[in-house]
Specification:
Citrate Synthase, domain 1; single chain; mainly alpha; 2 domains; 16 helices; 3-stranded antiparallel sheet; Cytochrome p450-Terp, domain 2; 3 strands
């Protein structure tokens, strides 16, 4: 008889197999490629193609893939028409969840779970989400969404449609890097939710709705927003150190540090930390790089915790002038590539995900009639 193992939160439990990414103490790989190499040398479009196809594209494949994602932006029109009807104080994660559900009604392949159909739906969803996120911020500001402009990269398009201006090349490079670093992370909570949903032979859109709802929770998404708040509050490296020590003395948690898997440091944070400090050189109102280093070094020395990717992302997004509420939705625009790859992989070789639970309720007892209670 097979021994049943119980682990709270499934921590340490291998729940399935995937060829998409590998998460370990010594790094993160997408389809065997080091995240450091991809972040420093690749583009999000290349990485998104890799996620869905298992190989990096050649020049022609990348061009056609990028064109398909660009054209898919126009197919977000049903969702864009809905945006003005949604209360302006709605959470964008809820808006995205609603929009993906709505777009399922307009996708000609919604119910087709073949490999080819899932790849096509994946490309459309990535283009559509990248169209909806900046459009929402325009709508709640009483402005018209900015139409996409041919010739811009995926990251450049997001910045252009958000601000309406030609995006700065360094800003585009920085946002592009965050999209690469957030694209995939194995069996995290939202990915597992998507795989569980589609393991019932549900569809891609339903799985993505599940994933967005899961990512909305503050124990999974939103840490980069909290990190953004921290940086916004601090005026100098000295202020950063006094602020931090005060919180450490009160045993308050500082968001953006520590990781369940990366006990010796998040490799994504190293790469993005370098980029964020490079971006900081173009902002002379504060010593942003000094503030960053003081926080990182103090937490490491005092608590033994390394920053995770959300911490430098908070600084990067602040310096990019992005609205605080866009952080987790941008995570969605990136992680869609990983989610869709996992949904496709699950359906290509499906087995219903149905774990057991350990019962801790009352012992067996007889039913008591109403008159005797």
């Amino acid at each position: 008889m097979t021994e049943t193992i119980m682990a709270e939160g499934l921590e340490g439990v291998i729940a399935g197999r995937t060829a998409i990414s590998s998460v370990a103490q010594d790094g993160l790989w997408y389809w065997g490629y080091s995240i450091e190499e991809l972040a420093r040398q690749s583009t999000f479009e290349e990485v998104a193609y890799l996620m869905l196809n298992g190989e990096l594209p050649d020049e022609k494949q990348l061009l056609h893939f990028s064109e398909r994602m660009f054209l898919a932006r126009a197919e977000a029109e049903p969702a864009l028409r809905l945006l003005p009807e949604i209360p302006k104080d709605a959470i964008l994660m809820d808006v995205l969840r609603t929009c993906v559900s709505l777009l399922a009604h307009h996708d000609p392949q919604t119910s087709d779970n073949s490999h080819e159909a899932n790849i096509s739906k994946s490309e459309r969803l990535m283009g559509q989400a990248a169209e909806i996120v900046p459009a929402w911020f325009r709508v709640i500001d009483g402005k018209q969404p900015v139409p996409p402009r041919p010739g811009l990269s995926h990251a450049g398009q997001i910045l252009y449609q958000l601000h309406g201006d030609e995006p700065d090349p360094v800003a585009v490079e920085t946002l592009d890097m965050t999209l690469i670093l957030y694209a995939e992370h194995e069996y995290n909570a939202s990915t597992f939710a998507a795989r569980t949903t589609v393991s019932t032979l549900s569809d891609m859109h339903s799985a993505i709705v599940s994933a967005i709802g899961t990512l909305k929770g503050p124990l999974h998404g939103g840490a980069n927003e909290k990190a953004m708040d921290i940086f916004e509050e601090l005026e100098s490296p000295d202020h950063a150190e006094s602020w931090l020590r005060e919180r450490l003395e009160k045993r308050e948690r500082v968001m953006g540090f520590g990781h369940r898997v990366y006990k010796n440091g998040d490799h994504r944070a190293v790469v993005l930390g370098e980029k964020a400090k490079e971006l900081a050189k173009t902002h002379t109102d504060r010593d942003w790089a000094g503030i960053y280093d003081v926080l990182v070094n103090t937490v490491l020395n005092e608590k033994g915790l390394h920053p995770n990717v959300d911490f430098p992302c908070g600084l990067a997004y602040l310096l990019l002038g992005l609205p605080r509420d866009i952080c987790t939705p941008l995570f969605v625009a990136s992680r869609l590539s990983g989610w869709c790859a996992h949904v496709t992989e699950q359906l290509d070789n499906n087995r219903l995900i149905r774990p057991l639970s350990e019962y801790i309720g009352p012992d067996p007892r007889p039913y008591v009639p109403m008159v005797e209670r």
